[in-house]
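Sequence, structure tokens reproduced for reference:
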Amino acid sequence: MDWRGGASRGRRWHHVGSRRLPTEKRGRYDGCDRLPRMSDTLDRAELEQLFTFLARIQQEPPLREQLNQVQTALEVSEIARLSGHSFHLETLIAVFDRCQEQPFAREGLMDEKLIRVHLRRESFL
């Protein structure tokens, strides 16, 4: 008998929201499998496209001002697509994750976050 008053039968439980799931099933429910792993999604050509776009931020004040107005990675990838740089949103999110940055920022701070990510490009290429 365990502390809940019932026999635990050697199973461990994982709480997801209001649902209690056996530990062996939690990978399918907790959202960890939604984002692809770095090795699955990032190829060199796509990273080069992303970092080429990020390099333009410091060189082009109008682009920096435009990125200063956005708050999400989705908006950043849309601006990049419109300016001719093709990389997947998942790539940008995976790079943010690898740099321990969130894929969103308060208004006026996204440009600085992207510059910090760009400064870490050596660890990706």
